[in-house]
Amino acid sequence: MTRGDQHFYQQIVDNAKHAVGVPWVQLTAFDAKSGTIKQLAVSRFSVPRIRRAAGTFRRLANGRRILDVVATIDANATLRALYSDGQTIDMPLSMVAQGTVPRAASRLAEVVGLRQTLGIPLRVNGEIVGALNFHSPRPYSAQQRTIAEAFCRQVELTIENRELTRRLDENVRLLTAVQRRLISAEDSVKRELAEELHGRVQTRLLLAWRRLQRLADTMAEGTLQHQLRAILDELDSIREEDVRGLSHRLMPPILSTGVYSALSFLAALYAPEMAVSVSLEPDVVERPDIHEPILPEDLRLTLYRVAEEALANAYHHGEARNAAVRLVVRPDKVGVCVVDDGLGFHPGEVQDNLGLTLMRARVEQFSGTLTIHSQVGTGTIVRATIVPQGALREYLHRAFQERGATSRG
Ligand SMILES: Nc1ncnc2c1ncn2[C@@H]1O[C@H](COP(=O)(O)OP(=O)(O)OP(=O)(O)O)[C@@H](O)[C@H]1O
Ligand SMILES: [Mg+2]
């Protein structure tokens, strides 16, 4: 039982005691398999006489506490009627306790004047999960019974709600974990591909190119050599632009540069089909350290990937001619906004595919928000906003102070 559970159960019994007006209330759980009853909480003792009696019990029972002795008990026939059949019981405490707790314990109850027990089963989702047991010196009035019954129905609802909230929290936790895995899988696949292209594939192309060039050098000048040199040029452009370019697109040089530089690199790839401008808010004067990253790597990658996907969507789905990427990098606010002049869409009517899902998940990893404003015919605005908290916020404040007022991410 967690501390949160303990507090929750304690509140139930303390409130029940006051609502019904009895000296003592117990909340119990029933384990049908073993036929045992476990005490979850008991209302607090306020009467000094009860405290004294508890001291007497401890002496009688070799130092054991009354609550430990009755912590888990085997159910007798009466208690089975309560927990298994769901019957409310209203009878002398001595009958309820018969054969279940040591005689010293039931004697003690009598000494402190607890004679009559009202036990009401608690049902959650149609199953009996336990009971609230009210103990009183005298028989219960009809009004007390009605209040006790009503109180128990409320407790059932509270337990049910708590269970639902717990399940919801668990689902949110699982979903977040899945999203996190999805993001890191996407990143690691891209990183692997980038490394492979940048390293092995590029090197092999380079070696083949050199061999062909040596061959061309040995050839007599003429059409054949001319053709070979043209192929060499094409091969070089494949290596330089396609392979190297692709590897950079997969894993941007964002690890060594700031987001601003990486986004400028990304924007240039769309020319001339889509004009993409990149700007920084608030604007900054050029500084020698402008290309040094200020944000932590995971945050840089998040901003980059959001802009990358938003631009891809603008180009691919929106058929946009112009797009603007605006970057905000301040200690108290980090974000990226991509505006396009494309066809637009109804965000509520399309299904989020991997693109939008991952964008959102990446931003939510930093407790940020992703909003999409779009209408058919008016273009699209995708905005990711992160308000740095805790350690990240402190880190950014320090970093900004060290570097003067501004940086480009
Ligand atoms: N800028 C945009 N302009 C027009 N439509 C868009 C834009 N951005 C998103 N959409 C619409 O939203 C849908 C979902 O986008 P999302 O990026 O999640 O998936 P996708 O691009 O279709 O596939 P992928 O998972 O490969 O990214 C798109 O299919 C498109 O209909
Ligand atoms: Mg997409």
UniProtKB/TrEMBL annotation:
Q: Name one GO biological process term.
A: phosphorelay signal transduction system
The molecular function GO annotations come to: kinase activity
Q: Give a yes or no for keyword Transferase in this entry.
A: yes
Q: Where is the signal peptide?
A: none
Say which domain of life the source belongs to: Bacteria
Q: Which residues form the Histidine kinase domain?
A: 188-390
Family matches, as InterPro entries? GAF, GAF-like_dom_sf, HATPase_C_sf, HATPase_dom, His_kinase_dom, Sensor_HK_TwoCompSys
Asked whether the UniProt record includes Transferase among its keywords, one would answer yes
Sorted keywords for this record are:
Kinase, Transferase, Two-component regulatory system
Q: Which PANTHER family match?
A: NITRATE/NITRITE SENSOR PROTEIN NARX-RELATED, SIGNAL TRANSDUCTION HISTIDINE-PROTEIN KINASE_PHOSPHATASE UHPB
The name this protein goes by in its record: GAF domain-containing protein
Q: Which organism is it from?
A: Sulfobacillus harzensis
